[in-house]
Amino acid sequence: MPAKVKENIFSNIIIEMRNDLELDAIIEDYLLGKLNAQETEAFEQLRRNDATVDHKVVSHKFFLESMGAFAANLHLKEQLNQIHAEIDVESLADALRPHPSRMVQLWRKHKSAIAVAASFVVLSLVSIYSIQHNTQQAERYRQLSNQVNNAIKTQNSLIRNIKHNNTASDKPTTQNSFGGTGFAISTNGYILTNMHIINGADSLYVQNSKGESFKVKSVYTDPQNDIAILKINDKHFSNLSSIPYTIKRNTSNIGEIVYTLGYPKDDAVLGEGYVSSKNGFIGDTTQYQVAISVNPGNSGGPVLDNNGNLVGIISGKPDQTEGAAFAIKSKYILEAMRAIPQDSLGVNKLSANKKSLLSGLKRTKQIEKIQDYVFMIKAY
Fold it and tell me: Please, is 255 exposed, middle or buried when counting C-beta atoms within 10 Å of its C-beta (0-12, 13-18, 19+)?
């Protein structure tokens, strides 16, 4: 059978099975190198075209690595048990009494087994630490792992008085507060941010560039991509004018200049840099890596290019790496917005903008136009 025909047949089979359990078997064969060249090429084409399949591949890779580490740890335990069986426990207990000669005799009799057992103990501890470290590391960029945003719990600057007539029970206190950044995706109060910023919160508020705070509620969450959409639910809020930025629908290139506006402190802070990688943490294709310095509170901030197109949303930073951050790609912002009833987003919804109003403007003018559309998120 010609190679091209075989490739097309395999592509069709994969597409038919993409929602079935058999897709997991194909992914495993792919990761283990069991597919031939034509099948591998067809599957990689499917990954590039289908983000859901790509997510499954990344998740399955983590699963296989964790299972391999777990199996190695079990093997170490079996060897330790075998060494333990070879040691005369009664003699060991007796030797532990204050009889130096007995201890010397026990060491001479069992020194090889004891030395090997000690080595396995050290290796086992290293293995256990490695498994725990890898598992924790795989979750860090999704939640910012309390290293980026939970530090805000100690920042009193994030707490301002609520400037409208809420009841005392609705007003936030300075205890157990945390937050980040969000930005408008419609003129009537829909705000997009990171899910990890609001996760577990009892009360949510947003604060604009003028210091005005408004009560909001969560209307949509996407745990897989760390995205949440909030809706301002406050009679004191007035609709915004036409949103100046638009969503970039194609992929940004390495070296492309980008910037973000966020709230690592009580007033907005500009961060500038460039796209440094088309993939995020451990090759995550849903994110970019950007060369922008970020601080606690920047998460959820918009990432825009020079023409005012929305490239992504800041979601985290690599551990102990200065001047770098991860940004969820704009494609997944669009997917989240499609989950909201389109008529509820208002007439001037972000997805309807055909051209950015920021194009051709100097950076200072761009910031002036977008600052009213970027909000501090307060979660309690």
Answer: exposed
Residues 6+ positions from 105 with CB-CB distance below 8 Å? 95
Q: Which two tokens stand for residue 2?
A: 């010609």
Asked whether the whole model's pTM tops 0.70, one would answer no
Where is the domain boundary, 145, 174, 193?
A: 145
- Report the distance separating Cα 215 and Cα 211, nearest Å: 13
Please give the average per-residue pLDDT across 48-54, as a whole number: 77
Q: What is the pLDDT of residue 204?
A: 94
Q: What percent of the chain has pLDDT over 90?
A: 39
Q: Cα(268)–Cα(208) distance, rounded to whole angstroms?
A: 10
Q: Measured between alpha carbons, how far is 104 from 260 in angstroms, rounded to an integer?
A: 68
Q: Are residues 73 and 93 in the same domain?
A: yes
CA 350 to chain centroid: 24
Q: Domain range for residue 23?
A: 3-49
Strand partners, 216: 204, 232
Alpha helix ranges (H) inside the chain: 3-17, 22-31, 37-49, 51-86, 89-95, 100-143, 195-198, 330-338, 363-370
The SS3 assignment for 154 reads helix
* DSSP class per residue in 309-351: EEEEEEEE--TT-TT-EEEEEHHHHHHHHHTS-GGGG-TT-GG
Dihedral pair phi/psi, residue 214, rounded to 5°: -135, 140
What pLDDT, on a 0 to 100 scale, did the predictor assign at position 205?
95
Rg of the chain over all Cα atoms, to the nearest angstrom: 27
